Amino acid sequence: MSRRRSAALSLALLLSFGSTAARGAEPYTPVVTPNGATLPWKLVDGVKEFHLTVEEIEWEFAPGMKAKTWGYNGRTPGPTIEAVEGDRVRIYVTNRLPETTAVHWHGLLLPSGMDGVTGLTQRGIPPGETFVYEFPLRQHGTAMYHSHGDEMVQIGLGAMGFFVIHPKQEERHIDRDFALLVNEWSIAPDTSRPDPNVMTDFDVFTFNSRVFPGTQPLVVRAGDRVRIRFGNVGQEEHPIHLHGHRFEVVATDGGDVPPSARWPETTVVVAPGQTRDIEFVATAGDWALHCHRRHHPMNPMGHAVPNVLGVDQTGLEDEIRELLPGYMAMGQRGMEEHPMHAAHMPGPANTLPMMGGEGPFGEIGMGGMFTVLKVREHLTSYDTDPGWYENPPGTVAGPARPPETPR
Ligand SMILES: [Cu+2]
User: Fold this and answer.
1) What is the domain partition of the chain in residue ranges?
2) Is the N end or the C end of the chain the one with fewer CB atoms within 10 Å?
3) CB-hemisphere CA count at 13 Å for 1?
4) Maximum Cα interatomic distance, the chain, rounded to a whole number of Å
5) What homologous superfamily does CATH list for 3-291?
6) 6 Cα–ligand 1 center, Å
């Protein structure tokens, strides 16, 4: 096919998408990808057709920080592909990167030639060309898609997404179904391109390529049965911890975990190349959901900073102030004061305070891979942020008053 015809085909496909995806008629609760999107599809002769375009994009990690990343259809992660077991799918992939690519359908059972490994199972998709993948879906569960050719650069810059396949019949009703892709990046302050060469010392840790306070809360009704699908095609493992609940891991990218084999957890490790589906019944409150590696719910920091914890910096402050008026030392009593400093002291461009986000009780000492599960007894809409939780009287920790002070 000529390049011109292929471009015309892409355009026609793009124009026809979005209008005909009869989502309401599908036998499942649609997946919500916080800060993300779902890929529209079109039924053509009984085949669900999708279109992905991989390209360089400008991506905002949180207000105040953007970077040039590589993503699908204008975002990283790319839009979530959603289908049903037994469907036949046809996926057009247009390459607008400066190098060849291929898309691997991670965890799917499919013909070898559709597996998307550059050089091994197919010719790489040259820049400017569109390839088509087509296969039946013979399983259900959480899978992923990602570039499989120059992975260090292409995945390292964000070329990844979810591929969710629902069972033909819901085994149990799920009220809210979320998908969060964990990842880590190296984006030095005052730069705008993630460094794909970094192997270990990452400084930006993300849920769906966003950092707190840029992460959308997960809005849920009390008593809802909630599923959260985690995926990881990054470089590091992330132990994801949910407050206020006990959950079960009900599936991996290898399939469903039989009920007899599940055990209660509050933290699930999501290692590179894995997906983990957790389920629980929601309890009212504002509940932190975050990576438990303690540098990961943090925004960029200079790891080469000397440890000044407990060091009296009074004299130093005075001397530096002569050169740099307004200078304030920090770190002596911990890093909690950092957001306050960041608010009035100019820092490097295009980066974020290590932790940020104003909560109902002051600064939330978190950033990075952190979000809030907002569970409410009364909710008018899942699509509106319900604000902060109103705690029942007498249920908030506060200063001890004399009668209660332990002797
Ligand atoms: Cu982590």
Assistant:
1) 3-291
2) C
3) 13
4) 84
5) Cupredoxins -  blue copper proteins (2.60.40.420)
6) 41
